[in-house]
Amino acid sequence: MTRERIKAYEKIRKALTEAPLLLMPDWNIPFELYIEACGDGLKASLHQVQIIDDKPTEGPICYISRQIKQTEARHGAIQMYFLCLVWALEKLHYSLDSSAFEVMTDCNAMKSLLNMKTPNRNMLRWQIAQNSHILTM
């Protein structure tokens, strides 16, 4: 094994054997809500950029996830992301109700759908749910 491989192995081993450091929320700093929806589940994590050791450092506050229900499995990709967003807003309402936050996702279609003039019934319900929060994308 080369030195590079040994170094990479040690880095991976260290990352797998140490728990990730969760930050305490600072209510004066905006949050970042990362969401991900895939065929088997919904995942979200709440992050914040805080000053640690005189450097701005992004760190996790909490992680949440759940399996997709059988009735939800028929949704399309965009609907799954909206479902994930609404679910995350419901689960993390205690942190997000009075705080500014930005949604981070790899689904660019969500931005245009949030601004739709005539959404379908599900999209309208999801728009109403997210409009009750201080949200940017």
UniProtKB/TrEMBL annotation:
<feature type="domain" description="Reverse transcriptase RNase H-like">
    <location>
        <begin position="27"/>
        <end position="128"/>
    </location>
</feature>
<keyword id="KW-0378">Hydrolase</keyword>
<keyword id="KW-0540">Nuclease</keyword>
<keyword id="KW-0548">Nucleotidyltransferase</keyword>
<dbReference type="InterPro" id="IPR043502">
    <property type="entry name" value="DNA/RNA_pol_sf"/>
</dbReference>
<dbReference type="GO" id="GO:0004519">
    <property type="term" value="F:endonuclease activity"/>
</dbReference>
<dbReference type="Pfam" id="PF17917">
    <property type="entry name" value="RT_RNaseH"/>
</dbReference>
<dbReference type="InterPro" id="IPR050951">
    <property type="entry name" value="Retrovirus_Pol_polyprotein"/>
</dbReference>
<dbReference type="InterPro" id="IPR041373">
    <property type="entry name" value="RT_RNaseH"/>
</dbReference>
<dbReference type="GO" id="GO:0016787">
    <property type="term" value="F:hydrolase activity"/>
</dbReference>
<keyword id="KW-0808">Transferase</keyword>
<keyword id="KW-0695">RNA-directed DNA polymerase</keyword>
<dbReference type="GO" id="GO:0003964">
    <property type="term" value="F:RNA-directed DNA polymerase activity"/>
</dbReference>
<protein>
    <recommendedName>
        <fullName>Reverse transcriptase RNase H-like domain-containing protein</fullName>
    </recommendedName>
</protein>
<keyword id="KW-0255">Endonuclease</keyword>
